[in-house]
Design goal:
206 residues, alpha+beta, Jelly Rolls, 2 domains, 5-stranded antiparallel beta sheet, 3 helices, 10 strands, binds calcium ion
Length: 206
């Protein structure tokens, strides 16, 4: 009852105002004139449209944040070796370590020796490799990102056993290939077991 009274007053007030207005007095009512309720409905309709648009923006931003959060929580890590005495590696070839002790994210391929970055970010890669004692030939090797060598080392083939250790802390884009490759001027046999290893992990995703 009270609500009806208020609405009635509102309508009367609107009528009074329009009647009192000099322009209204001199103006014929037109068929497309909007009544007071029509104005309210139109106003509310615009507000609903605006709120729907804002909701769409929030939804898009929320999905983007969810994707970002999932990326930041992602763990990528691999650690690979080869239990044979000899790991034959061609000139400029990839050292194939056929056993992955750790392969979180499945970035390392034990059949090719290549790690393919599943996400873009800052990575830490390490390699150690060994040359037999009195083999007479030095072994050069480097960690490559695609075709670019980013860290290299040499294991001397003269005298006692030699082991080199290399490391690269680099940004890698998702899909880029990282591998330990032979940089000697010939095909070589890396010494296997726990003495030649290739590993890496994601420090922080983009
Ligand atoms: Ca040596």
């Amino acid at each position: 009852m009270a609500l009806r009274l208020v609405l009635l007053l509102a309508v009367l007030t609107e009528i009074d105002l329009s009647v009192g207005s000099p322009t209204s007095l001199n103006r014929q009512k037109r068929s497309d004139d909007t009544g007071p309720l029509g104005v309210v409905v139109e106003h509310l309709t615009q507000q609903v449209i605006s709120l729907k648009q804002q909701a769409e923006v929030f939804k898009t931003e929320f999905v983007a944040l969810q994707t970002r959060a999932a990326s930041l929580e992602k763990t990528v890590a691999f650690y690979a070796g080869n239990s044979n005495d000899k790991i034959p590696t061609a000139l400029s070839g990839t050292v194939i370590l056929d056993t992955a002790f750790t392969n979180v994210g499945n970035g390392y391929d034990t059949s090719t020796g290549v790690f393919t970055a599943p996400v873009s970010g800052l990575y830490d890669f390490q390699a150690v490799f060994m040359q037999r004692e009195f083999s007479g030939n030095d072994i050069y090797a480097a960690i490559y990102i695609n075709e670019r060598a980013v860290a290299g080392g040499v294991a001397d083939g003269n005298g006692a056993w030699d082991q080199a250790s290399i490391r690269a802390i680099v940004h890698v884009t998702a899909g880029q290939k990282v591998a330990l490759k032979n940089k000697s001027n010939r095909a070589v046999n890396f010494y296997g077991h726990e003495y030649t290893r290739f590993s890496g992990f994601l420090i922080k995703a983009d």
